[in-house]
Amino acid sequence: MPEMSVSQAELEDLHLEAAADWFVSLSEEGSAEARRRWQAWHDAAPAHQQAWEKVERLQSLLAGAPLQASHVLRQPSRKPERKSRRQLMSFIGVAFAAGMGSVFLPTAPQRPATRWIATARGERRSVTLPDGGRVWLSSGTRIGIAYDGQHRDIYLAQGALQLTSGSDLRRRPLRILSRDGVVRPLGTRLTVTQFAAHSVLAVQEHAAEVLTHNGHDDPAVRLKAGQRVRFSSSACGRVHNSSFGDDAWTRGLLMAMDLPLPEFAAQFALYSGQSVEVAPALASRRVSGTYQIDAPGRSLQTLADVLAIRAERTEMGWRLRP
Fold it and tell me: Of 25, 52, 50, which Cα lies nearest the Cα of 36?
């Protein structure tokens, strides 16, 4: 089986990206549900906790940051966000330039420039890769594309993607480096989705391999077309048969088959960009059916009618309650 490896510096970058995302999310949305999802991510792996500490420490330097760092953070954002992720990551970059980065992060080897692409909440987007392949981005997704003479790397910082890999005359290995593991497509079409505390890989064509970040002593798990696996940074679950629902979001749909309501809400929120809170009293309810993620209000009202519950509009999104 071909060897898959990812450097410690690459892992540090991915975890730091995720921690920065959570820092901004909690600054902008302090709801109990947002805190719960952050706590699940934070407790999922020691590396997440270390990255969170670094982002908090970097942010705490703001009061005493060099003038150029303060200048960057005072720049108006392109979007009317109170504390944009772009500004926070710019501060981190300035911290490196000012010589503060070495206090927090190891020196990283020279790597190719990364082209970062992001979608807004509720947006889906198709991107053509340098090798002719294509990647679909779901709502609220952020990826980095880094191709050089030896590698073809796609960083999944948050959200979900579907990759249709291209052919490469130079036969450079293709990797998707995500928060929880490294996915190696084998001439394939696949989806990778990052939830709060785990990720899901589903293969639609050909095959793929996944190796968790903390599982380098274990063999990579290989999937063929029609299979899916749930994995975290520490372990892979059992391989199961996939369904049309795994990539239904690329067609604007969410398909559920006897899915617990809280899990349905988490998927609907991820793919639609709409926050969905579920009252604890409804945790045991289950959902089946096909719902349009591009029409969240109509879909959630239909769900409420089917389950005989209430769907209420909130400032941040929706709430489901008895």
Answer: 25
